[in-house]
Each structure stands twice: as C-alpha cells, then as structure tokens.
Amino acid sequence: MPYDKALGTFFYKVSYKNPSSALPILLADFIKLFSSIADFGDRSNC
Fold first, then answer.
1. 4-39 b/e (C-beta count within 10 Å ≥ 16 → b)
2. pLDDT in tens, 1-46
C-alpha cells in the first residue's frame, strides 16, 4: 500500500529529526488513516 509506505517514510524523517515529537504525530496520522479506512469499509459494505 503506497500510503503505508509514505507514512513510514514520514515517520522515519520526523523521528530522525526529533524522536520525542514523532510519536504523537504518528499516532494522530494513524488514527486519521484508520478512521478513513473504517469509513471506506462501512460505505462499501452498505
């Protein structure tokens, strides 16, 4: 999945520059990604 790869690259760059701030950013992005996937799944199941 390309989005997954982009997220991993983003996390790597952020954590390399500032490890302490990387986790909340990754967490927020992951929650956003997860909710969008859940929304898409709900819509396609209807």
1. eeebeeebeebeeeeeeebeeebeeeeeeeeeeeee
2. 566 777 778 777 766 666 666 677 778 888 888 888 777 777 666 5
Distances (CA, A) of 22 to 18, 35, 37, 38, 40: 6, 20, 22, 24, 27
Tokens 């701030």, residue?
Answer: 21
Can you give the pTM of this predicted structure? 0.38
Residue whose tokens read 């898409």: 40
